[in-house]
Amino acid sequence: MATEQTSASPTAGAAAFTAQPGTVLVTGASSGVGLYATKALVGCGWHVVMACRDTAKARAAATALGLPEASLTHLQVDLGDLDSVRGLVQALRATGRPLDALVCNAAVYLPLLKQPLRSPQGYELSMATNHLGHFLLIQLLLEDLQRSTHPSRRLVILGTVTANSKELGGKIPIPAPADLGDLSGFKAGFKAPITMASGKPFKPGKAYKDSKLCNMITTQELHRRLHERTGIVFSSLYPGCVADTPLFRNSYPLFQKIFPWFQKTITGGYVSQELAGVRVAQVVADPAFAVSGAHWSWGNRQKQGGKQFVQELSEKASDPAIAAQTWDLSLQLVGLG
Ligand code: NAP
């Protein structure tokens, strides 16, 4: 059971943590963390359903990494569109494959918007894509996960340090820490002119953080509501600062240049896409990560060789009353409430 990446190549240890391979659906697998998670999972025998906005891009990215076509299924989804999410679920079921694990990874980060973009349902696009699309996908696929006979069914959601005020990165007030306030934006239906879950004025960078806070809240609430009954392991993770993924493509060009350098040479917190992918794969497949309700981290200043630990979450992410309210309102917003 290898849980540390101590070798020179971060994927070299991937096969070592294989429990029993199965089928996993990864959203946003066409680049960055999701693509390299796909690589690591395929490397230890899993079949990966790459659920991507652009399947041609996903296929080309997988081919460029030399991933065998037979280990992959390509399905199209726009997570910002609830109808498209429903279509993905139908398409997955039509493949006849069981679903043994689900990784909610796709995200958009749009920090320079002056005005909010809207999803087809009229919701602010960061929250719609990162949280609401995944929330609906999870609700619909829970029954598929429950049907799986895999000995360790898992649902994994990507969180982040900047949405957890228990950590230094979550205290940075630029533009503001993650905070859903009294959820009055969600309560009022979250459509124009409302842009934020809190109902407060639009801050695009904060919209991303709020959506990631919702991701971590969802994991905690899934664990509280469903782990005991279903046996599914629900967990989130912070894969590290993967400063050179396309996530930052909508930031200032200068930031895109300086940020990876800063994380590599000043903070030492930089994590490669390859290593971040292995971390996701571990949370999916390594028996050492079969801890429901855990938020995994490898710390902020660690490179390869780091060991995972369960990171404490802020009250905003772990308070059961906030979580229950966020869950119920999210159900309504995705049309299930
Ligand atoms: P990335 O390379 O930009 O990957 C994001 C993926 O999401 C891409 O495949 C993208 O597809 C997809 N996506 C975006 N909008 C979509 C939509 N509407 N429908 C379907 N797919 C969509 O970024 P990344 O850094 O790997 O981020 C992956 C996850 O890690 C995110 O959840 C992020 O919050 C989390 N994370 C990242 C970091 C970091 O430092 N990078 C740190 C902590 C957490 P397209 O190619 O079509 O755009």
Class from helix and strand fractions:
alpha/beta
> End-to-end distance, in Å?
42 Å
Strand order of the largest sheet: 3-2-1-4-5-6-7-8
Shape summary: globular
Major sheet:
8 strands, mixed
Binned, the helix content reads 40-55%
Return the string of H and E elements. EHEHEHEHEHHEHHEEHH
Protein described:
With 337 residues, this protein is an alpha/beta fold. Helix content is 40%, strand content 11%. The chain is built from ten helices and eight strands. The protein has helices spanning 32-43, 55-64, 82-95, 125-147, 184-187, 204-230, 253-267, 273-285, 315-318, 320-333; strands spanning 23-27, 47-52, 72-76, 101-104, 154-158, 233-238, 295-297, 309-310. It has an eight-stranded mixed beta sheet, with helices on both faces. Helix 1 packs across helix 8 (273-285) and helix 4 (125-147) runs parallel beside helix 6. The radius of gyration is 18 Å and the shape is globular. The chain starts with 22 loop residues before the first strand and ends with a helix. Residues 1-12 have low confidence and may be disordered. The structure holds NADP nicotinamide-adenine-dinucleotide phosphate. NADP nicotinamide-adenine-dinucleotide phosphate is lined by residues 28, 30-34, 52-54, 57, 77-80, 105-108, 129, 158, 160, 212, 238-239, 241-243, 245-247.
